Amino acid sequence: MDKQMNKKKYLEYIKTGLFYLIAGVLVLYISIAIFIPDKTVKVFGFKPYVVITNSLEPYINVNDLIIVKNPKIDDLEEEDVITFMADINYDGEKEVVTHFIYSITENNDGDTIIRTHRYFEDGVTVIPDYWVIGADDVLGQYVFKINKLGYIVQFLKSPFGIATVVVNIGVVIGIVYLIKKGDPKVIKKEEDKEE
Question: CA angle, corner 25, sides to 22 and 27, nearest 5?
């Protein structure tokens, strides 16, 4: 009986430890994603993005969730898909964009210069984007996509989605508390039976 109790205690400690480990990693990921979003892929090796334009359709569609990995600039090749920062409107603000690589060259100073392009169905008529980016602008290299998962991510980022999550977490915590607290009379009867 004593060995069984010890085994249960150890399992409980392991479950609690795993819970706190996972919660800690999630808090760290969310904190980095909020405060230094451009560094998330560098710290964790991957980052999800929701596609919000149709420039890569039908290869990658609007509201697809793409996962990018930490890029190795020297390994990038033409026609790789990358996510990067570019001032696409020439308004001084850089936006996140995901496109194919059109060309990779070096300028006279030895800096990497990357041109990109959107998806072209025929593959023959490929026109490069009008912006030019450097190696520092590259956020990640495309790995895979999850179709339409972006709808859920966008909902969860909205004020209504955040409120829904907070309320549901509160309800779950309340239910867990009530279950763990239990009815003292029932608990006492169970303890008496075991003795």
Answer: 105
Q: What is the CATH number of the domain that holds 44?
A: 2.10.109.10
C-alpha dihedral sign at 88, 46, 80, 75: positive
Tokens standing for residue 1: 């009986």
Helix and strand element counts for the chain (H, E): 5, 7
Residue 63 inside a domain? The answer is yes
Q: Is residue 49 part of a domain?
A: yes
Structural domain containing residue 72: 39-151
pLDDT in tens, the chain (195 residues): 566 767 788 888 898 889 889 888 888 888 888 788 878 888 899 999 999 999 999 999 999 999 999 999 999 999 999 999 999 888 989 999 999 999 999 998 989 999 999 999 877 789 999 999 999 999 999 999 999 998 988 888 888 888 888 898 899 888 888 887 765 555 555 555 555
Domains held by the chain: number: 1
